[in-house]
Amino acid sequence: MGADKSDILLREDEVEISAIRAQGAGGQNVNKVSNAVHLRFDIHASSLPEDIKARLLQAKDQRISAEGVVVIKAQQFRSLERNSFAAMERLRELIAAAAFLPPVRRATRPTWNSQKRRVDSKTARGKLKASRGRVGIP
Questions:
Q1: 4: phi then psi, degrees, rounded to nearest 5
Q2: Which fold, 5-99?
Q3: Counting beta carbons within 10 angstroms of the beta carbon of residue 40, is it exposed (0 to 12), middle (13 to 18) or buried (19 or more)?
Q4: I want to staple 19 with a disulfide (CB 3.0 to 4.6 A). Which of 34, 56, 78, 83 is the partner?
Q5: Other C-beta atoms within 10 Å of 35: how many?
Q6: pLDDT in tens, the chain (138 residues)
Q7: Domain residues of the chain, as ranges?
Q8: CA 60/CA 131 separation, integer angstroms
Q9: Contact predicate 17/39, CB 8 Å
Q10: Is the separation of the CB atoms in 37 and 84 below 8 Å?
Q11: What whole-number distance in Å separates Cα of residue 88 and Cα of residue 81?
């Protein structure tokens, strides 16, 4: 059916993580320390199954470039390790969403009784409307 987030095995050599400086407020520390993380993952060169690769490439996600490279920036935490872990988790969630296949909908037919109830209610409504004619004056 589909893969769970924990079922997805990503090889570390397929994921490129680089430390960058975080944006936003943070005082003097933000200008000195590279704690944010840029994660790059090439979908074409990965060891993912072909059907998941195809669904990832078709996904309308701004993190996936036209060349098929996933770019995730994580800067929520103050430590490099936690940001790296957060970026990997987001990548796993993205791949798990592509791995999930919704169940196929099978068309069903209405039951005989439900069809009969529908037609009966329509005829009853028609009779009610037909009885609303003008009252004839003799």
A1: -85, 165
A2: Double Stranded RNA Binding Domain (3.30.160)
A3: middle
A4: 34
A5: 22
A6: 445 555 667 777 778 887 887 776 666 666 667 788 888 888 888 878 888 888 888 888 888 888 888 889 888 888 888 988 999 899 888 888 888 888 999 999 999 999 999 999 999 999 999 989 777 776
A7: 5-99
A8: 57
A9: yes
A10: yes
A11: 11
